[in-house]
Amino acid sequence: MTALRRSWIDSANSPDTDFPLNNLPYGVFSTEDSAPRCGVAIGDQIVDVKGLEEAGILTSGEPPVFSKPSWNAFMELGPEAWNGFRGALMALLAEKTGLKERVKPYLVPMAEARMHMPFEVSEYTDFYAGKNHAVNVGTMFRGPENALPPNWLHIPIGYNGRASSVVVSGTDVRRPWGQLKAPDMEAPVFAPCKRFDLELEMGAIVGVPSSGPITVQEADDMIFGYVLLNDWSARDIQAWEYQPLGPFQAKATATTISPWIVTKAALEPFRTSTPEREKELLPYLQEPTPMLYDITLEVTLAPDGKEASTIARTNYSQMYYSAAQQLAHHTTSGCPMRVGDLLGSGTISGPTKAERGSLLELSWGGKEPLTLESGETRNFLEDGDTLTLAGAAKGDGVRVGFGVCAGKVLPALDDPFKR
Ligand code: MN
């Protein structure tokens, strides 16, 4: 089992921190007196790597890549440079370093920092690759006999989403208006969404570009890291618009990601296989080695000004398809992938009710309201609710965590067309 690597930064040695030396996730932060810049989380501190690069303590490459507040230029250097940088950074922050005094001036307390988008999202694709979720939703919409579409066990199903509405944790999300029609309505109306929901997902970030079909192994090698991802979903808009081309406006309001990119290197000890296949996959989709990760996940909901309730707990290992399989499938058409592409895993739900990653499933389409710690009930999200995702891979006295992915629901505008 993975053990703690000790750092000279005390807070990084706590068994409760998401950010021990084992982790070193990448983000972009600003403070009252510094503009957004690249940083690395360690314990309750952020290492200003732009500062370290400018001081010549740490080099990323030539030309320097940390002049812009995003990790895209660093990703473009490729896996060898990623590993070299991580190794050098780990040596600087390890307990037995000779450079402690030189690094200290570049530490910023996390409590004083504001987080920004860690990378520029080139394009965004979202999948539907959790089997429990697909069975639950399919059962609600089509009945238990037709829950899984006939292609589901053969293809990681996805749709091309919008990079423009991906936002960082802490960004408020406004309830959308849209065209919707419930089954009992005679005609569609344009109205504020009444069934606003979350989707608990992981996001995989592509760090190496491709120009033609790639294997699952090549796809795994192209992934830079992972974030938590909440695919906000307007269920009533979705139900009316989704056939025959899939979700559109229901998913375009916002997608929230956690601010720290946890690298594939940090997650390496936590690899696990996808569940047993129910139908043999075509050879191009078969996983040569374990490509999922054992990451425990949790969703909490806090009504405005009230105590938070944990509404779901599950694990990333519940996915039927790994991000590498999804990425390989994505390229079969010859579709080029770019550095900074983001792939949403699809909603992650476990087999039991307490493990469901959306309110649609938790309240069974609004038929079984959830009771919160505050005594309130929920079918779907209410205005003022703050939704928070958290996750960590756990070793022996050490956790490689993601921080949080949070967003608050603001009320719909009174009139979206008022100028
Ligand atoms: Mn989704």
Which word captures the global form?
globular
The CATH architecture of the largest domain = Alpha-Beta Complex
- Mean pLDDT level: 96
The small molecules bound here are: manganese (II) ion
Structural domain tally: 2
**Which structural category do the helix and sheet elements fall into?**
alpha+beta
- As a percent range, the share of helical residues equals 10-25%
Number of helical elements:
10
Gyration radius over CA: 21 Å
Beta strands, count? 26
Tell me the CATH superfamily of the largest domain.
Answer: Fumarylacetoacetase-like, C-terminal domain
Structure description:
- This protein has 419 residues and is an alpha+beta fold.
- The protein has ten helices and 26 strands.
- Strands 6, 7, 8, 13, 14, 16, 17 and 22 form an eight-stranded mixed β-sheet that branches.
- Helix 6 packs across helix 9.
- The structure holds manganese (II) ion.
Task: Give a short overview.
With 419 residues, the protein is α+β, with helices and mostly antiparallel strands. It is built from ten helices and 26 strands. The strands form seven sheets. Strands 6, 7, 8, 13, 14, 16, 17 and 22 form an eight-stranded mixed sheet that branches. Strands 4-3-2-1-5 form a five-stranded antiparallel sheet. It has a five-stranded mixed sheet with strand order 9-26-25-20-21, with no helix packed on it.
